[in-house]
Design a protein that fits this description.
Length: 305
């Protein structure tokens, strides 16, 4: 008999709430799962590790991308099997992995779905599964925190994003796998492990979360007009044709800014920094996914190969 654990952000809602989750698990034979509720996502890792120490085979994470990211960072490299219950605003990882937005179906995926080994990335030692970025995206996310996101959902990002279009650029130096890739002024640097980012936009069409690589996008747009052209290309799925975007992929990234910038991991803002050391950790976490999401693992392809 498996041991099931739940780590839940109590402030997040999904389906009929945590009461329904208890009922669904009970119907599946898990009337007394290990159960931990937290008020803040930053407190989730403590209980994720506690659940594993008590022998949990499946760890259900109830919350948004921030809660999922915190739990992943806590248990990466272990035998943990995570099941996502997408109770957040954007639920980017769940959307990329096609985890259902129905509570009962999401539980079924956790108990009976495929177990897929995925890569994670790390920024200055902290892991992420979706994306990490500095500049425009971090400002947009930071502006939406503090109640606006809970009240208006993803529409909050549209408002704060519009306000962030006039922010000044910074000087950046970027190395990819030890070689200089970029030097110049940027408005946004984004590293992704999956294709869809904020708003469900397919910004990195070639991204695969199990290919041993991370995608890098550098945006140089300096005013709202250039941003409009850039975002228009992104919306059409042809961001690579924008004159204000440069793409590459790799395993290790070294990014240095000439002044402090806030950065974000999977939609959660972190303190300002002038340096970002990013690298991929292949097959470092196991996530429950629907069977149709299970794809053949491609061989890593590096630029120039």
């Amino acid at each position: 008999m498996r041991t099931v654990a739940v780590v839940a952000h109590a402030g997040k809602s999904f389906g009929g709430g945590l009461a329904e989750l208890r009922q669904v698990l009970a119907r599946e034979g898990f009337a007394e799962p290990l159960w931990y509720e937290v008020a803040k996502s930053r407190k989730a890792p403590k209980y994720a590790r506690r659940a594993l120490a008590k022998g949990a085979d499946v760890l259900f994470v109830w919350g948004g991308d921030g809660t999922v990211q915190r739990c992943i960072s806590a248990v990466v490299g272990t035998d943990a099997v995570l099941a996502i219950l997408p109770a957040g605003t954007a639920n980017l990882l769940a959307a990329n992995l096609q985890v259902p937005s129905d509570l009962t179906e999401a539980v079924q995926v956790g108990l009976h779905g495929d177990r897929r080994c995925l890569d994670t990335g790390s920024v200055n030692g902290e892991h992420f599964a979706v994306m990490a970025g500095a500049g425009f995206d971090a400002r947009m996310i930071k502006g939406a925190d503090g109640g606006m996101k809970d009240r208006f959902g993803q529409a909050a990002y549209l408002y704060t994003g519009a306000k962030s279009l006039t922010a000044g650029r910074v000087e950046a130096r970027i190395k990819v796998d030890g070689k200089r890739f970029f030097k110049g002024r940027v408005s946004c640097v984004l590293v992704a492990n999956v294709g869809k980012v904020l708003g469900g936009v397919e910004a990195f069409s070639g991204a695969q979360p199990d290919d041993g690589l991370l995608e890098l996008g550098v945006v140089t747009a300096k005013n709202p007009a250039e941003w409009a052209r850039t975002l228009g290309r992104v919306a059409l799925g042809s961001a690579e044709k924008s004159p204000f975007v440069e793409f590459t992929r790799g395993r290790k990234f070294r990014i240095r800014f000439d002044r402090e910038l806030p950065y974000e991991l999977d939609g959660g803002v972190r303190p300002v920094a002038t340096k970002m050391r990013i690298k991929v950790h292949p097959s470092s976490i196991t996530i429950c996914t629907p069977p149709l999401c299970q794809a053949a693992v491609r061989q890593p392809v590096l630029p120039g190969e």
